[in-house]
Amino acid sequence: MKKKPTKELEKIGVPLRPLKADLHLHTAEDPLDHVQHTAKELISRAAGQGFDVLAITNHHAVTFSPDLFAYARDRGILLIPGVEITIRRRHVLLLNPPRGRALFDFTSLSALRRPETLVIAPHPYFPGMYSLNGALLKHRELFDAIEYCHFYTPAINFNLRAVDVSKSYGIPLIGNSDTHFLFQLGMTYSLIYAEKTVESIFEAIRANRIEVVSRPLSTREMGAIARRFLGMKLQGNGWNHEKVFASGPEV
Questions:
Q1: Long-range CB contacts (< 8 A, 24+ apart) of 61-70?
Q2: Rounded-to-integer distance, Cα 24 and Cα 45, Å
Q3: Phi and psi, residue 25, nearest 5°
Q4: Alpha-helical segments (H) within 134-196
Q5: Which neighbouring-strand residues pair with 147?
Q6: Comparing C-alpha atoms, which of 98, 94, 92 is closest to residue 122?
Q7: Nearest to 143 by CA among 188, 184, 83, 95
Q8: Is-contact 30 59, C-beta < 8 A?
Q9: I need a surface site. Which of 156, 157, 205, 248 has the fewest CB within 10 A?
């Protein structure tokens, strides 16, 4: 992806060493998906790969606590509260969601928008009933960024439409892995030119000071992940994503 010009960043006082970040991750604490690794196992693996920033975004559950925040901090990682919710059968990522707010539709999502909460469109054009598809453009003013997800090959890339929308409408593109299995971590991530604070990171994303780092999967890798994902879903707590997220901690 396009590199950020060094002189331009120097002029506005942005750190030249970007933060390595993945803001779409699932763990064993997810109430819907049968993920095997715990939040602490994920954080430890990410620390070994040099990540600076993570957001665990389990379905309709904020996996975040003072203990988990400290565990990440001690390993050099800023952990941002996150959640993957379902609105009108469409997935949406919320980072640093507010407490005590029920979200039933896109109107209620609009009422939630504020500087300290980031809204991301995850895997918007991937096949599946929970992808945003046309709802992304219909409600594009609600989204701070569009996700470039790791699950693609050179021949099959459902991210291309997201790239086109990002360019056409000026919505920043952010790379995430949507990790459900630890080996997926690091396949796609973002380099964010910001200070290591939630406020600075969100401001940098909105200002599009991001590089997406990604590699395509081989056909064999894609098939293996698809089979494991299907097996995980069949072992999990069901396919019903129609729950309402109502509360969560903030940092």
A1: 61/29, 61/30, 61/31, 62/97, 62/247, 62/248, 62/249, 63/27, 63/29, 63/30, 63/39, 64/248, 64/249, 64/251, 65/249, 68/39, 68/40, 68/43, 69/251
A2: 15
A3: -140, 145
A4: 134-138, 160-169
A5: 174
A6: 92
A7: 95
A8: yes
A9: 156
Phi, psi for residue 169 in degrees, rounded to 5: -110, 5
What confidence score (pLDDT) does residue 12 get?
Answer: 65
pLDDT in tens, 81-117: 999 999 999 999 999 998 877 778 899 899 888 999 9
Longest dimension (CA), the chain: 52
∠ Cα 203 207 210 (to 5°): 95
> Burial of 101 by CB count in 10 Å (0-12 exposed, 13-18 middle, 19+ buried)?
middle
Which two structure tokens, joined as six digits, stand for 27?
């763990």
Dihedral, CA of residue 139, residue 144, residue 146 and residue 148, to nearest 10: -170
Question: In the numeric block, which tokens belong to residue 73?
Answer: 């901090």
C-alpha torsion angle, residues 183, 185, 186, 189 (rounded to 10): 150
Check residue 206 and report its DSSP letter.
Answer: H
Scan for tokens 């504020």, then name that residue: 114
Distance between CA atoms of residues 41 and 102, nearest Å: 30
